[in-house]
């Protein structure tokens, strides 16, 4: 919620998760911010986060940052084709497409009851994935519109198209940077516990 002053007495507007903000300074428990449209106001400091995650496919590592500050690094497991971007849904017949997608994503759900211990669900397919999928005939116009609408509303996109879905950072990883997943990023459970404490819905995840 954006407020006119450093209190909850004069709300200006409700802000969705992942709303980009320009930080103008903090005092006590409130921070003054500017939205991309130029409107200024105050938000509770506890509602701000500068944590983001970088997944390095070449090095098979996951890095956690707080703004520019490096916080932690973990070994990560990937799919069998770690070097290419994801283009479509994989299968037992097309295991080559069990790839980890590249781009900027966000945590859209925290699943504490995953079949792989715990999972941070990412909002793949993204806008760029939908554009490429439509151009290549992988998805229909209706599926494209549904993906774009979900991102405009900052909610989970359709996961059942031929682009694939349910790309997660989950547990049950080996901790040895191996390749066994179906496109997800797997961490050792003790490492995922640490990342879990840093992450929240809306945390940016850069994969490249």
From TrEMBL:
UniProt protein name: L,D-TPase catalytic domain-containing protein
Catalytic residues as annotated in Swiss-Prot or TrEMBL: 170 (proton donor/acceptor), 184 (nucleophile)
Record's keyword annotation contains Cytoplasm: no
Gene3D superfamilies: L,D-transpeptidase catalytic domain-like
Limits of the L,D-TPase catalytic domain: 51-208
Family, as annotated: Belongs to the YkuD family.
Organism in which the protein naturally occurs: Longimonas halophila
Keyword Transferase: yes
Pfam families reported in the protein's UniProt record: SH3_4, YkuD
Biological process, per Gene Ontology: cell wall organization; peptidoglycan biosynthetic process; regulation of cell shape
GO molecular function, one term: transferase activity
Pathway(s) annotated for this protein in UniProt: Cell wall biogenesis; peptidoglycan biosynthesis
Protein keywords: Cell shape, Cell wall biogenesis/degradation, Peptidoglycan synthesis, Transferase
